[in-house]
Design a protein that fits this description.
The chain has 104 residues and is of the alpha+beta class. 47% of the residues lie in helices and 19% in strands.
Length: 104
């Protein structure tokens, strides 16, 4: 049996179930970043970052805007509101997740 909250959470859980996508969201919680900067920080090819960003955009977690040659990504404001003030706890309604500090 599913509840309205769990139905609402399922797309987020699927999108965040991948380690690379989780790390992308973790990086973007600090502020907007270009695709190339994400690739460099996470040591993942730009192609793979773009594939993961497509899924995060489709789910409504991330949005992207082209500025010249660069694509800038950020967390969607509605999703950002689900993150606690200390920016390390995500409340989806059905469950709560903690983002640990990313090692750099």
């Amino acid at each position: 049996m599913t509840t309205p909250d769990s139905e609402c959470c399922a797309p987020f859980l699927k999108a965040l179930g991948d380690k690379t996508r989780w790390r992308i969201v973790q990086e973007l919680l600090s502020g907007p970043v270009t695709v190339s900067a994400l690739a460099e920080r996470l040591r993942v090819s730009q192609y793979n970052i773009s594939k993961h960003l497509r899924i995060l955009r489709k789910t409504g977690i991330v949005e992207a805007a082209r500025r010249g040659k660069h694509v800038h990504c950020r967390i969607v404001p509605a999703f950002q509101r689900r993150v606690a003030n200390n920016k390390n706890q995500l409340d989806l309604g059905c469950c709560v997740f903690r983002f640990e500090k990313s090692p750099r």
